[in-house]
Write a structure and sequence with these properties.
The complex is a heterotrimer of chains A (286), B (312) and C (294). By secondary structure, chain B is an alpha/beta fold. Chain B contains 12 helices and 12 strands. Chain B folds into 3 domains: 61 residues, no CATH class; 110 residues, D-Maltodextrin-Binding Protein, domain 2 (3-Layer(aba) Sandwich), CATH 3.40.190.10; 126 residues, D-Maltodextrin-Binding Protein, domain 2 (3-Layer(aba) Sandwich).
């Protein structure tokens, strides 16, 4: 008798778990289908090759998003050109030198944590004052790129540091046995071994930067023509989507089409990152 | 541990696997090469590049470059100004016109500080702004909108005042259904809000709003999604949306039917001028653009944005 | 030739090491300087408001009407916290439920597909969530409980936004869970319920807490999606269906229209956010060392 009672209670609890988990999954599924479905439904009709390469007209209701894709690429490109060297150096410091500078390393780690958690709009405020006004870059692709770099840096440092740390210690020992210098070990052994992770960090940082809206409105501006220099103002895709949705009557379909392009872009970048990570950890985990 | 988080087990990675690593390997070779050079020289060069960029940036403000015009200000005027600027650039090679969005107050501030050659302001200038000259580009009305399913067709300004100050809380009291009213208001600082408040003789703090919105389209989407909402938006934007089948309607205000035509003949009571503003003595380049922007050459653009063109 | 290159090799590495060490340390200092710079500029720009208005009026004024000299920011701080808590409270059980279901009841192939779909969801830019919320979710809520744009809608949209992150992070926290332990638990006749709550959850609580912290910070910092669905009325909400304004939305909504003291007051919003985030990171981040960005 007791055994059956126990089994039935067990069965009930497990059923609760299964039903709750299942419905949670269904919930996420429904939302997923609703959002992506609406994007496809509304956006696909405007999506075409000419849309991708031609210039916008009628405030974005007509034409395409060619110059906007170029501006987005330029802004993200600048931010990565700053993030990668600076972030790599910072990650090397955090992974290689914490014993030599314990206090600096601890403070730096907390700074990176805070930076990673700082709302992007606050970094946008900083960029709009420091890059646009104090350094005199104005509303430009350069200001936008540098502001995004501040956002992407902590993310990249985090991933790159983790990558450098996972390089097995015996690699280093072997390098030392061959009388390789610290620099030589880093450049020839450790960084190459960590490259897949570093590349993944890069892709994640690009994804984060490409999806940013708030910070870019204050720094890279609104002009939707093809940029011809770093000091030109250039409209990013996310800003374009926001403007179409919130400021242009009848801009919804175009907004969804641009969002589809951005989603595809970010998705491909994330895939590249994830694939590299799989590769690395797939090997290390076994 | 977070890194593992992004691993898709499902993704066999056969295609992408080689692609990023190949690029990165090449990148690495470059890194080694640059490393052979003295790092000191590299950092010095970097410093020089930064200094150069800085200098170039300093020389890049609007006032130093006569072939570049900078317009900042109202988000209502910005899309129109952008289209005019594009056509102007096409007809006048060598001149660049940068249009930045923001708000009317930003347009005034930037023009005064010399950060912009021309400001965009979506209301008439105030007495305190007499140091500036307004050049009217077009006119725009502000319409009261409700959901298309709302039986209300007309309201007086007293009724609207009562609704926006919270004295009238149910549609029933103004002749509608027995449901609560959702009051949609604009965010502080927007000139549509200032024009609306000016017409009703209200202060911003008198208004008891249920939803506060930023740009026009957010207001239209909010009202279209809520059969009990009331809001106010640009007549031009409302007309385009109604033509597109968005379920909103403009209601009569004190017996006046809102339409761009009524704004044009002056019979509709709440309207505002969309202005380009300059300091009293604009540069020759600015003046040329101002003349162009108010000429009949761009009236089709004004109409396309659903504003009312004014005689030059 | 060979002797020269040998001696070169012998002398240069230590010099190079010094150069690299110097460069790397400089970068580290630059990282700290960046945060210091951000704090410096935000403080500098908010100083006019802090000195003219005073710190206390940001909590004691009657309302937020910056053009009429009223600067009460407390409702927005509360709004930010409520929206964040609401989003995490919705997202956490949903994501964990889905992860548990995937672990216990889904075949590996199906789980892989679900995971792929969640990765897509994680890649959607926040503006799109906001737009979807504004045109689909808010009207649904408005039909049930006007005005629609509310604490509830903002929490739901944010929850949808962070659920993929939480799900991916917590799933990977369980990824390398020793199979022997699960099998031992099964052999002892433990139910799935017991295995989850008494074996897996306690063993991975730190990693799961990290996932929650990261999700919280992401929700806290979101601007555009919240601005589009929260209603943005700067008053204390008394129920779930009341509108709220968050500090981030406050900046985005008014910054372009703000001059002088109004602008400085918006920088104070940024400063408050910065302080909030620092407090959170220093208290929560200190406990779990593996907090990483995601």
């Amino acid at each position: 008798m007791r055994a059956t009672a126990l089994t039935s209670r067990r069965f009930k609890k497990d059923a609760v778990l299964a039903v709750f988990g299942g419905s949670a999954l269904v919930c996420i599924g429904v939302v997923f289908v609703a959002i992506v479905g609406e994007m496809l439904w509304q956006g696909l009709t405007s999506l075409s090759w000419t849309y991708l390469v031609s210039a916008p007209s009628e405030s974005g209701r007509g034409g395409g998003i060619g110059p906007i894709i170029v501006s987005t690429a330029a802004i993200v490109g600048i931010s990565m050109a700053v993030t990668v060297p600076l972030g790599l150096a910072t990650a090397i410091f955090l992974s290689e030198l914490p014993r030599q500078h314990p206090r600096l390393a601890r403070v730096l780690r907390q700074c990176i944590d805070v930076l990673a958690a700082t709302p992007s709009i606050v970094i946008g405020l900083f960029g709009s004052v420091f890059f646009a006004v104090t350094l005199g870059f104005g509303l430009s692709i350069l200001s936008g790129g540098l502001t995004l770099a501040c956002m992407a840096l902590p993310l990249f440092v985090r991933v790159a540091e983790a990558g450098l740390r996972t390089v097995p210690g015996n690699y280093r020992q072997a390098a030392r046995a061959l009388n390789l210098s610290w620099t030589g070990t880093l450049v020839h052994i450790v960084i190459p071994a960590a490259l897949p992770t570093i590349g993944a960090g890069l892709a994640l940082a690009i994804g984060r930067a490409a999806a940013e809206t708030a910070a870019l409105i204050f720094t890279s501006g609104y002009v939707d023509r093809m940029p011809s220099s770093w000091f030109d103002s250039g409209r990013a895709l996310s800003v374009h989507i926001y403007d179409l949705a919130m400021n242009v009557p009848g801009g919804d379909q175009r907004a969804f089409a641009a969002a589809l392009v951005l989603l595809l872009l970010v998705f491909i970048i994330n895939l590249v990152a994830a694939a590299t990570l799989t590769r690395l950890f797939g090997q290390a985990g076994k | 541990m977070t890194i593992e988080a992004l691993l898709p087990n499902w993704f066999a990675a056969s295609l992408w696997e080689r692609f990023p690593t190949a690029i990165l390997r090449r990148l690495n070779r470059g890194m080694i090469r640059s490393h052979i050079k003295s790092s000191c020289a590299v950092s010095l060069r970097l410093l020089l590049i930064v200094a150069f960029i800085w200098l170039a940036g300093c020389g890049n403000t609007a006032t130093h470059n006569p072939t570049r015009l900078v317009l900042t200000g109202s988000s209502t005027v910005a899309p129109l100004a952008l289209e005019i600027a594009k056509r102007y650039e096409r007809d006048n090679p060598g001149i660049r016109v940068d249009v930045q969005t923001g708000g009317s107050s930003r347009g005034i501030l930037d023009t005064r500080r010399g950060l912009a050659d021309i400001g965009m302001v979506s209301r008439a200038l105030k007495p305190s702004e007499s140091d500036l000259t307004a050049h009217t580009l077009a006119r725009d009305g502000v319409a009261i909108i409700v959901h298309a399913a709302n039986p209300i067709e007309a309201l007086t300004s007293d009724q609207i005042k009562a609704i926006y100050t919270g004295q009238t809380a149910r549609w029933h009291d103004v002749g509608g259904s027995d449901n609560p009213i959702t009051v949609v208001n604009k965010a502080e600082g927007r000139s549509t809000l200032e024009v609306f408040l000016g017409y009703l003789h209200l202060k911003s703090s008198d208004i008891k709003a249920h939803t506060i919105i930023g740009d026009n389209e957010q207001g239209i989407k909010t009202v279209a999604g809520n059969p009990l909402a009331i809001g106010y938006v640009s007549i031009g934007a409302a007309e385009i949306n109604i033509a597109n089948g968005v379920p909103i309607k403009m209601i009569n205000l004190d017996g006046h039917r809102p339409s761009t035509a009524a704004v044009a003949d002056g019979s509709y009571p709440i309207s505002r001028s969309l202005n380009l503003i300059t300091l009293d003595a604009p540069s020759a380049a600015s003046r040329k653009f101002l003349d162009y922007a108010r000429s009949t050459d761009v009236h089709d653009l004004v109409v396309q944005q659903s504003f009312v063109a004014v005689a030059p | 030739m060979s002797t020269i290159s040998l001696s070169n090799k012998a002398s240069s590495p230590s010099r190079r090491d010094g150069v690299l060490r110097g460069a790397v340390t400089t970068a580290a200092v630059a990282g700290i300087a960046l945060l210091a710079g951000i704090i410096f500029f935000v403080v500098q720009e908010s100083l006019p408001a802090l000195t003219e208005i005073g710190v206390f009026r940001f909590a004691s004024d009657a309302s937020w009407h910056p053009l009429e000299g009223a600067f009460n920011m407390a409702p927005m701080l509360v709004g930010t916290c409520l929206v964040t808590v609401g989003a995490v409270a919705l997202a956490l059980p949903l994501a964990l439920g889905a992860v548990v279901f995937g672990r216990f009841y889904l075949p590996p192939r199906a789980r892989a597909w679900v995971r792929g779909a969640i990765i897509v969801l994680a890649g959607i830019p926040s503006v799109v969530f906001g737009l979807w919320g504004l045109v689909t979710l808010v009207p649904l809520i408005a039909a049930w409980q006007p005005p629609g744009a509310s604490l509830l809608s903002a929490s739901i949209v944010l929850a949808i936004m962070i659920t993929p992150t939480v799900a991916l992070l917590s799933d990977s926290a369980l990824e390398h869970f020793p199979r022997e332990q699960v099998m031992a638990a099964r052999a002892l006749g433990l139910s799935n319920w017991a295995i989850w709550f008494h074996v897996m959850l306690p063993a991975r609580k730190h990693a799961l807490a990290t996932a929650a912290v990261l999700a919280t910070l992401r929700a806290l910092g979101e601007t555009m999606a919240v601005l589009m669905v929260a209603g943005n009325v700067p008053a204390l909400p008394t129920s779930l269906s009341d509108p709220v304004r968050t500090l981030t939305a406050n900046i985005a909504l008014e910054m372009a229209y703000a001059v002088d003291t109004h602008r400085a007051a918006l920088f104070v919003s940024g400063l408050v956010l910065l302080v909030l985030v620092m407090a959170l990171v220093l208290t929560l981040g200190g406990k779990s060392k593996t907090v990483a960005a995601a």
